[in-house]
Amino acid sequence: MKTPILYLHGFASGPLSKKALFFKDLCDRDGRTILIPDLNLPDFHTLTITRTLDTLTQQAALLPSPPVIVGSSLGAYMATLLTAQHRFPVSGLFLMAPAFAFTNLLDRLYKEELLRWRREGEFTIDHPGYGKSLPLAYDFYLDAQRFPPFPETGDTLCRIVQGRLDKVVLPENSLLFTKGNPSREIFLFDDDHGLLNSLEPIGSLFQGFLSLLDKK
């Protein structure tokens, strides 16, 4: 049986993003099961990492066998949290620009808005996945502080793809995560956070990774 895929999109993205559809097409052509949940549901305003992890634990039961989790940015970080917390068996991790040290990332990206976010209890975020701006409760930030910056995924096989020009997620965090662990490997591209100019070589890496896991 071919290893199924659980795809986790990034923050303020969705299941119809270019990367999500690219991986769906790869899996469809390969006759491989892929599940791409909308991580914004049931409501973006009340989104938290805790809520999403609980929902994904339930949805993973729909897959026929332990999946490879493919994640983008925050979705990639949550993939490592699911694995570290042993929510369900995982065959491997394929992470694109994983948002390690996530609260540090929020502090850096939203440093001008954090005081107002805390004071007003919500903050309006540009949400490309839905094509509009949406409010997000401050509970999202408070909840994110509960989680470790670099979840320990042990010897689970992991491939990371990262853009050298990424200004959102710092490449050095991915390099730090892979250091000293032979089960983790990183591939750097001359690309930005979206990695949209590197999808074809990323797809080839992904297919090679799946071939390795399918033989296990």
Question: What would you report as the Rg, rounded to the nearest angstrom?
Answer: 16 Å
Topology order in helix (H) and strand (E) letters: EHEHEHEHHEEHEHEH
Cα end-to-end separation: 11 Å
**Strand percent estimate:** 15-25%
- Class by SSE composition: alpha/beta
| Largest sheet descriptor | 6 strands, parallel
Q: What is the number of domains?
A: 1
CATH architecture: 3-Layer(aba) Sandwich
Per CATH, the class reads: Alpha Beta
Net shape: globular
Low-confidence segments, ≥5 residues, pLDDT <50? none
What is the number of helical segments per DSSP (H or I, 4+ residues)?
8
CATH topology, by name, is Rossmann fold
Biggest sheet: strand arrangement: 2-1-3-4-7-8
List the keywords.
single chain; 216 residues; alpha/beta; Rossmann fold; two-stranded antiparallel sheet
What does this structure look like?
The chain is an alpha/beta fold and 216 residues long. The chain has one domain (5-214): Alpha/Beta hydrolase fold, catalytic domain (Rossmann fold), CATH 3.40.50. Helix content is 37%, strand content 19%. The chain has 8 helices and 8 strands; from the N terminus they run βαβαβαβααββαβαβα. The chain has helices at residues 18-29, 49-59, 74-84, 102-109, 114-120, 139-144, 171-178, 199-214, and strands at 5-8, 34-35, 68-72, 92-96, 122-127, 132-137, 158-163, 184-189. The strands form 2 sheets. It has a 6-stranded parallel sheet with strand order 2-1-3-4-7-8, sandwiched between helices. Strand 3 (68-72), helix 3 and strand 4 (92-96) form a beta-alpha-beta unit. It starts with a strand and ends with a helix. The model has no long low-confidence stretch (mean pLDDT 96).
